[in-house]
Specification:
The protein is an alpha/beta fold. Helix content is 42%, strand content 18%. Helix 4 runs parallel beside helix 5 and helix 6 packs across helix 10. The chain binds nicotinamide-adenine-dinucleotide.
């Protein structure tokens, strides 16, 4: 592949992508502001170049794109709960930042830009519905709205400037190196440190879970099968209620009780992506068993709690 630039490469999914790229011998440059979710430690032991910078700085992104064959754009503010308290901060990074990445890609003549988006742009999936790649956006929280707006910019640059850009949307990832405030790490910490897991509301919302290593493999497949204008979905096809996942986490942590707390505003009942066409196009399917993947994830996050 040559040299791959990964924005947000020090984050949860980005560091899994970087690991997968390095494992197959690709040269990697990470561009990351080391904000929420991003840590140098996530890249420990990996041979790569780390550029610390902000995606809103078009000149810095241009410089980071020098000599690059492809860019995976993952950098974002990604925590829904934080977006409720700082919607405009999220719009600044996720929308203006994506505009700067697009402008830089155009300026340097980047050969391939693969943008990372989310199932949340569609809003709540009615029972039995999994959204297709062209379905209408109905984002239900400021994070989701900022990602939907970023998608609009992607297609505007593709249409107006013929930019070689494609996009992947995925469902909820789980695994090591996720920020401590996200759901599963947070439930592990509560179980380990407080002996009780408190969930938002009754825990009935369902999420479709995908191991981060499987997501990384899907992103590499999308890069290898890059087609300008392509949109791919990566799904776990493994929907579970938040309560069921919290109970599984609590059981793995020694059987802490699970209690209901206040509901979180802006929470959608379910997210779901139809990924049948992408699995066929990319020759990709997740291979991690949820029970095993969750057990390994809980061990990793419990060890991080012990280190703090
Ligand atoms: N985690 C999921 O389940 C999930 C699901 C679907 C889509 N996504 C998308 O995948 C991408 C990565 O998500 P994640 O879960 O790894 O998030 P994360 O918060 O762990 O990582 C985001 C990374 O972006 C960096 N970053 C933030 N603002 C920046 C800025 N202004 N300039 C440069 N870098 C900046 C952070 O430092 C961090 O390393 C995001 O685009 C997110 O919207 C995530």
């Amino acid at each position: 592949m040559g040299l791959v630039l990964v924005t947000g490469g020090a984050g949860f999914i980005g560091s899994a992508v970087v690991r997968a790229l390095r494992a197959r011998g690709d040269a990697v440059r990470v561009f990351d502001a080391l904000r929420t979710g991003g840590e140098r430690a996530h890249l420990a032991g990996l041979e790569l170049e780390l550029v610390v910078g902000d995606i809103r700085d078009e000149g810095a992104v241009c410089a980071a794109m020098d000599g690059v064959d492809a860019c995976l754009h993952l950098a974002a503010e990604s925590h829904v709960s934080r977006s409720l308290g700082d919607p405009r901060g999220f719009i600044g990074v996720n929308v203006d930042g994506t505009a700067a990445v697009l402008a830089a890609a155009r300026r340097v003549g980047l050969p391939r830009l693969l943008h990372m988006s989310t199932d949340e742009v569609f809003g709540a999936a009615p029972p039995g519905v999994a959204f297709g790649v062209g379905d209408r956006h109905r984002p239900g929280n400021p994070y989701a709205a900022s990602k939907a707006a970023a998608e609009a910019l992607i297609w505007a640059w593709r249409h107006s400037f013929d930019l070689p850009v494609a996009m992947v949307r995925t469902t909820n990832n789980y695994g090591p190196r996720q920020h401590a405030e996200k759901a599963i790490p947070c439930w592990v910490r509560m179980a380990v440190e407080q002996g009780v897991v408190v969930i938002h509301g009754d825990g009935s919302p369902t999420r479709d879970w995908l191991a981060v290593e499987d997501c990384a493999a899907g992103l590499l497949a999308a890069l290898d099968h890059f087609e300008p204008g392509a949109v791919d979905h990566l799904a776990g096809r493994d929907p579970r209620s938040n309560r069921a996942v919290a109970e599984a986490v609590a059981a793995l942590c020694g059987g802490a009780p699970v209690r209901c707390g206040p509901a979180r505003p802006g929470q959608d009942a379910a997210y779901a992506l139809d990924d049948r066409a992408s699995r066929a196009r990319l020759g990709w399917a997740p291979c991690t068993n949820f029970a095993e993947g969750l057990a390994a994830t809980v061990v990793w996050h419990a060890a991080r709690c012990a280190r703090r």
